[in-house]
Amino acid sequence: MTVIYIILALILIFILANLIHYLLFKHKYIPVLMYHRVNNHTRDNRIRYTTHKGSGLDIDSMKVSINAFQRQLDYLIRKNYQVITMDEYLDIINNKKKGKFVAITFDDGYEDNYLYAYPLLLEREMKATIYLVTNFINSNNSLPIDKDDDFTNNKPLTWDEVREMNKNHITFGAHTLNHQFLTEINDIEVLVQEIVESKKKIEQELNIEVKSFAYPAGLYNEEIIRIVQEHYENAVITANGRIVPLFNHNPYLIEREAISRTDNLFMFKLKLWGIHRFIRKSLWYQALRRLLKWRK
Ligand SMILES: [Zn+2]
pTM score, two decimals? Predict the structure, then answer.
């Protein structure tokens, strides 16, 4: 019996220590939400895309329904969140500005961002940052992830749509030329081109300065970060587990919370408040996961 009590006490201490840690640093955290698509079409035969790690990715989970997106925006308004772009993010962090901030980001540049997300954002005068795969924009090419599906369901934005949004609170960042996984590119010239030319293309089309970059699939290494650092003010990654510490201050590894189609408003709140991240990265959760894996 005593052993069980000791284990329980240890778990409790772990949770409490984590909680104190969370409460102490909560105010330094600005949630950056990651979306890909907003639309109401999911497929019956749920296609799974094989990711770089070989695990299946449910493509439909990246499509947040129009209703859910609207509810999430209205929640932010109700709770007086100030929505910022990724161009404003560092200034707020570095100058310790006071307020309840959140950033809304989209990856890739699908047309549904313009058709369904943008009107809802515009109505509420909310900002967002869209990371564009520049060779995808205005093209008749599907992204690799959609190659098994009808192109009409997976169209990219046009430059005209991008320009129109840019006039109304939407900022753009670069997400490479072709959405190749950067860690898999061996040719340094190609690597630089993917990172730098995408920025130049957006700057040319919009006549703005592009300050933020998103690594495709959140994949990076020292070399990639070094090139990104030379050309951008900051860069975002996807929420990928323990690689980045909970309170990380590297502006080139800004972690985001992925909002998925299956998230209800409660899950959205957990992600918004940083609690989801906090749990996922805490020692006791990691230990528990390892234990469950080990038992399988
Ligand atoms: Zn992407």
Answer: 0.89
The tally of domains found in the chain comes to 2
Q: What is the pLDDT of residues 19-62, one digit of tens each?
A: 787 777 666 789 999 999 999 987 655 555 665 555 556 777 88
> Which structural domain, as residue segments, surrounds residue 147?
30-273
* Residues 52 and 90 placed together within one structural domain of the fold: yes
Shared domain for 4 and 76, answered yes or no, is: no
Quote the ligand 1 centre to 89 CA distance (angstroms). Answer: 20
Ligand 1 midpoint to CA 57 (Å): 13
Q: Interior CA angle at 67 toward 66 and 69, to 5°?
A: 65
Q: Are residues 89 and 137 in the same domain?
A: yes
Decide if 142 contacts 154 (C-beta within 8 A).
yes
C-alpha of residue 23 to centroid of ligand 1, in Å: 32
What's the 219 CA to ligand 1 centre distance in angstroms?
10
